[in-house]
Amino acid sequence: MNAHSKPIASTEEKEDLYYAVHKGLRLANARMLIALGQLNPFDDDAVASTMRQLSDHIAMGMSHLTHENLEVHTAVDQRLPGASDHAGEDHEHHVAAFDELRVLASELVAADEERPIWLRRLYQRFALFVADDFKHMHEEETGIMPQIEEHFSADEITGIRERIVHAVAPEMMVLFTRAMLGAASRPERIGMVDGMRAGMPEGVFLGLMAAVVGHPWQSGDWMELEAALC
User: Fold this and answer.
1) Using an 8 Å Cβ cutoff, are 184 and 32 in contact?
2) What pLDDT does residue 87 have?
3) Which pLDDT score is estimated for 88?
């Protein structure tokens, strides 16, 4: 046992680093898979729009695993050496999958009569990625998070989450927020929005929510928010 791996005894409530963001990623994965499955390969505008959506989705996935590597895995391995090795290997497989998806997307856009073939290949490869990603996220939630809860204080866990949030680029934060709010239950959604409002200058909060919804949003209009995101 590492000298720093002694469990931290505490009755304080500790936040889950994975729950909300993984719910958002699961929703985004499902929506992206549906979009690819429903895509008309001969509709140039639809293909271009869906490939932009896929590019954003891959960028969000890359951002997520990059910040997990830098903040979560680094902190865990400093206290529990080797605890994140398997998750780190999964992340390497994700990066390889993203590269394959980009190539397939490019081939689809460049193709003519063979577009249905390339679309099927892209759809199947993305479906395989989703299957792997769902399994990976479950393993993080049930394997790594319990170790974090046992060996890190509530303040340390919050610090990890805050460092990740502060490192996310504004345009990427819009994608994450949209996915996380859309995947949340109504009580969770209200709590998340109220928390963001309390922690941000009013102008920054309103600007973020306008970008997330697609137009200015009136605080407290939960029905309209659900209509825009769910």
Assistant:
1) no
2) 78
3) 81
CA dist 43 → 16, 46, 47, 137 (Å) = 42, 5, 6, 34
Compute the residue count for the chain.
230
CA atoms within 13 A on the CB side of 52: 5
- CB of 87 closer than 8 Å to CB of 140: yes
Instruction: In whole angstroms, give the CA distance from residue 153 to residue 172.
Output: 28
Q: Answer for the pair 43, 151: CB distance below 8 angstroms, yes or no.
A: no
pLDDT at residue number 13: 87
CB 119, CB 36: distance < 8 Å: yes
Using an 8 Å Cβ cutoff, are 50 and 109 in contact? no
Please count the CA atoms within 13 angstroms of the CA of 1 that sit on its side-chain side. 6
SS3 of the chain: helix, strand, coil, percent, to 5: 80, 0, 20
Residue 39, SS3?
coil
User: In the chain, which residues have pLDDT < 50?
Assistant: 1-10
CB 79 within 8 A of CB 5: yes
Contact 90, 132 (CB under 8 A): yes
